[in-house]
Amino acid sequence: MAKLADAHASGACSRKGMEVQVLFRALKIMSKSEKPSIAAIPRRLELEGRPELQEFPLNILFSAFAFKAVPVLASAIYEPDLQSFQTAHRVQSLVYYNKYDTNWSVKISKGAFGWRGRKFAGNRQVFFFEGKEWREFFATMTSTGLSEGEAYVSEPIANFLPANRRDD
Questions:
Q1: Please, what are the averages of pLDDT over each run of 10 residues along the chain (168 residues)?
Q2: Is the distance from CB of 108 to CB of 96 less than 8 angstroms?
């Protein structure tokens, strides 16, 4: 299974610009048994010859802090299924599958209403979000973190600190 570092290198998210203060704050929150939220705002999907996909994200990242033997960042990356793209009644949609378990998916829809996101575990809808603006929508949707039973990879938070960073 790919490491989270590989996901970072592939553009799922970037370590550059991660503030050490945020990590220390998260560790402090974790020590108080509170669940910190992590929001991930994706880049847009840009494929030559497919301009209709520019309205959609390159991928979707859900993350959560956890404490095992050491504090870790657990993440599930959802990648687009380009064959699932549809347009119906002036609404475009694209389905994304969990890289680690394709039984989990997120359907993103864009229309006059703005954005809609539905996360599924098999055929069961886990949650539903709406938002008018790109940043607001993805920040709110991804800040829910990981869902119960969702497949993920984890990496010690210490790997994100400046002395241990491996900026690719």
A1: 34 37 44 64 94 95 85 92 96 97 98 96 96 93 93 87 62
A2: yes
Whole-Å CA distances, 22 to 49, 57, 136? 39, 25, 20
First CA to last CA distance, the chain? 19
Strands 71-88 and 60-67: antiparallel
Beta-bridge partners for 154: 74
- Integer Cα distance of 132 and 115 in angstroms: 6
The label of the residue with tokens 């520019």 reads 54
| Overall pTM > 0.70 | yes
Cα–Cα distances (Å) from 101 to 31, 83, 149, in that order, read 30, 18, 10
